[in-house]
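Task: encode each sequence below as structure tokens.

Item 1
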Amino acid sequence: MVTDDLIAFHRSFAEGGVGMTTVAYCCVSPEAASAPGQIVMNVAALLGLRKLTDAVHQAGAAISAQLGHAGVVAQRALTGVTAVAPSRFINPTSFAYCRAISTDEIRTVIKQFGSAAQVAVDAGFDAVELHFGHLYLPSSFLSPLINRRKDSYGGSIDNRSRLVREIAEHVRAVVNDQIAVIAKLDMDDGLPGSIWIDEALRTAQLLDGDATLDALELTQGSSVYKPMYLFRGDVPVREFATVMPPALRPAIRLFGKRTMGVYPYQNLYMLEAARQFVPVMSNTKLILLGGITDREHLETGLREGFDFLAMGRALLREPDRVNVMMAEPGSRSRCNHNNKCMVTVFGRTHCVLDPVQRYGAAATPDRGTPDLSVAEQLT
């Protein structure tokens, strides 16, 4: 459920100058959860969600709800049910078995996305973001590595794109023009034999032709294996080991880098791939993500033809980063991409370099106190 701390977390970004803050990750059903403490978009959460949207609006910003179904990323210990995938699959990180989802269950998932979107409308959100990335359930249908179905949802990329198109179409029908509909789409996930730019361009083209989306946020990486392909920069192996069960800690310390992947950080690290999508879009605006920390990065993205720019870790380090960039165009972000913030999602999401979070509000009483979010907020 929404807490006062979650409201303060998002209000801090609104007061810091962002145009829209995204509440991530919101589950379309209880079995769609990817981690503990996530909000399920249902009537029970409505009152708190309304308090959240009112607070962000009062601070001068818009607010979006990211809607997702974890699919292969879900854990039976958390949801109480076996995770589902397009085809039978063994998660290479958790070694958990995922069963193939049935056609009837696919229809149920599509309806769940629509119901969650209606909750977002009723709660006063300005947009929903459909999570079609990182090998969560919709994204896993796009992956030839995971999707080996023989029906109309498998085979060619047009067939593998069917689920994301049907979700987008249904959500648009539910919300009509009351709020914006955005989708987060993997350009590639960094896994051999899985999603790559050539087929992702076709998926984007199909979604654009359907004209069901207002904008497409382009992303990379996977929550299944080698997640550092999404984040880039330092690999917080030691920190991840401390939050794992004691029996797993030695293995994490020994093999963590191999499992998580090592990818150097660079500014605008998704731009090279994302610029391939600019000429493909006719009806849908594009959102650039990845390594955007300074004003010059925003200006570069706009010159390249993107309509919006998305920031994550830089805002976690400095919630007022946008205001600072506007007042001081040459200022540099204080985020150093140590990525230890990834581990804080198991408790209070925060930048480990912020003394307010690390040592308590008394250290610097003039700063806000953000609280629980989830990993997607970092991206």
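Item 2
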Amino acid sequence: MEDIFNQFYSNGALLVLWGALLFHLILPFPREAHPAIMWHKFAELLADKVNTNNSYQQSIISGTLAWMLMIIPMLTVVIALKPLVWQPQLFELAFLLLAIDWRNTDKFTNQFTAALAREDKEHAKMLLKPIINRTTQPLSQLGLGKAGAETLIMSYGRNVVGVLFWYAIFGGIGAFIYRMMIELARAWSPSRQRFSPFGIPAIRAVAIMDYVPLRLFALMVAIGHRAQAVFSLIKQQSHSWPLPGPAWLIVAVGAKLELSLGGPAIYDGKKSERAKLGGRIAPSAIHIAQVQKLLAWRMFAWILIQSVLMAIIYQGI
């Protein structure tokens, strides 16, 4: 037992992982105070300056250059800072803490579920508005249920599973850059007309980063009850969603709990036709609580499996 503890302690990457999870559990970053909020606002200001071309090709070029202008200098700075830090594990811990976020998602879900349960649509819309890009005002009780479920699924998938996956590959810097890429894609989402096609390069970059972790997590969700039906629906429906990683995960959760997800959404007053995913049950408060429970247990399993794999790879236990 003592040997196992000593090996765990000597494995800096694994120690940082569990340290970040513990610190985040005790002292999570408030959403309003997170550096990603400032990053998001700066991205919108930059887009106002450079997203001025009417030509499709020129807009794509502008979006690519703007993305590089945001990502490359930040990546260069954080890499240059690493050798200057007296304790590398603390450096990794700081950036992983900045990247990971499930407590704010838990807080949102609890408040949102309570608002839906008492049919307080205005409060539910207020909770959703700062998190999603779609227009919340026209949402019905059914629309709120779908939007809340999709937000919960993608928040856990990206802000926890995706962050931990890229931490295992590239350390704290990789996890942090991935999180900033997500915020950049959200700020310039081409689902809003003013960022189409300017935001396509940012979305494509995130789609590449999401491909492996979200699909692996979707497979973990599928395992168990209704596994055959879930795999069948993933095969049938995932091609109709524009992003392959999120497609698998949303379909997997929807099929697992037989929830109706996807469908039309309104962005900046314009209706966008989206494929319908999952099952036929309209999500309500109790279903969102079920989604949270399902994903929480799967995330716990993900963390344990990743910890074992990191121990084997880095330490050879």
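Check on item 2: The two ends are 12 Å apart (CA to CA). The longest helix spans residues 141-187.
End of task.
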